[in-house]
């Protein structure tokens, strides 16, 4: 049974996913997974109740060099009325904790000496169904290492904001957004040129000589001050002005 969402192309729903797809095709919201026999048979409800699952996301994205965003959000995504939406009905029964750690986020080729602001960044959600937004300003970079190899990459700065999503208000259009991690990027028209180089031995020797010369100069000034003070004290002593 598809619980009233049967169509000419879909007469029967054998799995929980089939029921959800049937409701999605109809544009209906599935209020409760617990009322669906297929979901109970597959243990979907029990898995959601456990609430101990975590996931690790790793990958690469190719994007156009224009302002945009990408996100990680629960629920299966689909196109509805030419819009990208997520099926979040199950979150009303099983809210999600969006605590996460970003081990590494780079734009472009990895540069060994570069430290990105979101590397090893941890966010601890204090409420459920949180929307975490990162706004990154991306600056193109040309990096040339000691081996003269040129790498075209990017560096970025970041600001972030988080809010709790009330699904009831969101469904009525009273609040925008959905739970998840959203990363927006804006690419700067400027470019930074970074070049690594070693100082030559003569440069090092010149620096050492400058330091030694400075030490001798300061020592000479201190010695002159002590000597002149001592001479002045001796003259006063000879004139009997010192008791």
Question: What this model shows, in words?
Answer:
Strand 6 and strand 7 form a beta hairpin. The chain has about 240 residues and is α/β, with parallel strands linked by helices. The chain has helices spanning about 15-25, 35-40, 45-50, 165-170, 200-240; strands spanning about 70, 75-80, 85, 100, 120-125, 130-145, 150-165, 180-185, 190-195. The strands form three sheets. Strands 1, 6, 7, 8 and 9 form a five-stranded mixed β-sheet that branches. It has a two-stranded antiparallel sheet with strand order 2-3. It starts with 15 loop residues before the first helix and ends in a 5-residue tail after the last helix. The chain is built from five helices and nine strands; from the N terminus they run αααβββββββαββα. The longest helix has about 40 residues, at about 200-240. About 25% of the residues lie in helices and about 25% in strands.
List keywords for this structure.
243 residues; alpha/beta
Uncertain regions spanning at least 5 consecutive residues:
none
The Rg value, from CA coordinates, equals 34 Å
Described by the principal axes of the CA atoms, the overall outline is elongated
Report the biggest beta sheet as strand number plus sense, adding barrel if it closes.
Answer: 5 strands, mixed
Please report the total strand number as a whole number: 9
Look at the helices and sheets and give the structural class. alpha/beta
Report the end-to-end length measured between terminal Cα atoms. 116 Å
Mean pLDDT over the full residue set: 81
Number of helix segments?
Answer: 5
């Amino acid at each position: 049974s598809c619980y009233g969402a049967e169509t000419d192309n879909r007469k029967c729903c054998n799995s929980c996913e089939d029921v959800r797809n049937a409701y999605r095709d109809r544009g209906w919201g599935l209020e409760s997974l617990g009322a669906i026999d297929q979901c109970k048979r597959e243990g979907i409800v029990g898995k959601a109740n456990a609430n101990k699952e975590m996931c690790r996301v790793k990958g690469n994205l190719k994007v156009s060099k224009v302002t945009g965003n990408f996100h990680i959000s629960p629920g299966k995504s689909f196109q509805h009325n030419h819009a990208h939406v997520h099926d979040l009905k199950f979150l009303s029964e099983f809210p999600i904790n969006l605590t996460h750690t970003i081990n590494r986020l780079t734009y472009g080729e990895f540069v060994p000496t570069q430290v990105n602001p979101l590397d090893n960044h941890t966010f601890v959600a204090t409420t459920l169904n949180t929307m975490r937004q990162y706004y990154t300003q991306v600056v193109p970079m040309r990096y040339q290492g000691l081996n003269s190899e040129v790498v075209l990459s990017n560096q970025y700065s970041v600001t972030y904001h988080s809010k709790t999503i009330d699904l009831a208000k969101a469904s009525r259009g009273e609040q925008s957004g959905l739970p998840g991690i959203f990363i927006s990027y804006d690419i700067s028209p400027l470019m930074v040129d970074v070049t690594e180089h070693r100082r030559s031995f003569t440069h090092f020797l010149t620096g050492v000589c400058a330091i030694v010369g400075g030490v001798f100069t300061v020592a000479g000034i201190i010695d002159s001050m002590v000597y002149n003070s001592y001479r002045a004290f001796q003259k006063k002593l000879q004139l009997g002005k010192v008791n």
